[in-house]
Amino acid sequence: MTRRPASRDREGAVGVSRSLAVAALVAVAALVDALMDHLTEHEAFLRAIFDVPDDDTPRLVYADFLDEHGDPGRAELIRVQCRLAALRRRSELVDEGELRRRERELLAELHPELELIHWTPEERARIGFDRGFLTEPAAVICPGELGDLAAVREKIVRSRPHWFRVKRMSVLPGWFLHPEHVEVLFGLAALQRAEEWDLGGHVEEVVGGPLTADAGAYALIDLNHQPVITGAGVAALTGHRGARRITSLTLTYNNLDNDAARALARSPYLLSLRRLEFRDGNEIGGRVWQELVERFGEDVVG
């Protein structure tokens, strides 16, 4: 009996392994492409909805799309709230009890986390649901989620679709916005309407002294700054053409220096800026401050 050389057997095994690996990579790539195409469909619907926010038709078309793609709960919430809104607009004398009951059931099923939040009256007035979508006024960004673009897009269309309507954006305390994060934010379809960028650092009062005997108050209060953006992040922001849509920019309490201020003053893209908050909590020289004022005007810079 003639035996094949062992080296030839090994080469055959390696060839099979490589073929399997290539096939696996092709399959993964196909799944990624399908996911991205599906996300693009969601994003197109959501842009259309908030292009004409007073029109129920795009919302109801999206509800059909959600039904067809395995999300009947969200689809029903949109329909129920659109029906309730239509009844209010027409002032129809119809018993809304059944619709209201179903609305509460759907909200409890789809958004149980809302019941765990102790809302202030002001927050209750600002935050609610309008025809299927949360009416929260701002998008609060967690930079730690921005590393995987497909994952963050998926999270937005599933649980934060209202971001497609917000005009204001801020950063979650305890996180830094780095240059790579800035690039992702400008590229997200959900934030194309965000023109007010609140990137101010967070300020926390820290007790630094004993109680006084007479007033019963602390003798010394320290302010602890928690920056949210680096100088490199500011440079990335000011150098991105997406900055053309920013009308309001807050950068206070980030321990930024003259280099960040110069990047702002010399940006070719901050053409729509009508308000810049920068002075407090940053280290900036008088001459560079004057450069900012000359570029944007005294009524803009603060």
Structural summary, described in words:
The structure is a single chain. The protein is built from ten helices and nine strands. It has a five-stranded parallel sheet with strand order 3-4-5-8-9, with no helix packed on it. Strand 4, helix 7 (179-187) and strand 5 form a beta-alpha-beta unit. Residues 21-35 have low confidence and may be disordered. It has 302 residues and is α/β, with parallel strands linked by helices.
Helices and strands in order:
Elements: H1 6-51, H2 57-68, H3 72-90, H4 97-110, H5 121-126, E1 129-130, E2 133-134, E3 138-141, H6 149-159, E4 168-171, H7 179-187, E5 196-198, E6 202-207, E7 221-226, H8 231-238, E8 248-250, H9 258-265, E9 275-277, H10 286-296
Helix pairs in contact: 1-2, 1-6, 2-3, 3-4, 7-8, 8-9, 9-10
Structural class by secondary-structure content = alpha/beta
Averaged pLDDT: 84
Summarize the biggest pleated sheet.
Answer: 5 strands, parallel
Strand fraction equals 5-15%
- The N- to C-terminal Cα distance equals 90 Å
The radius of gyration is 26 Å
Strand tally, please? 9
Helix content: 40-55%
Quickly count the helices. Answer: 10
Outline the low-pLDDT stretches. Answer: 21-35
Helix-strand topology string: HHHHHEEEHEHEEEHEHEH
Say what oligomer this is. single chain
Order of strands side by side in the largest beta sheet?
Answer: 3-4-5-8-9
**Shape call:** elongated
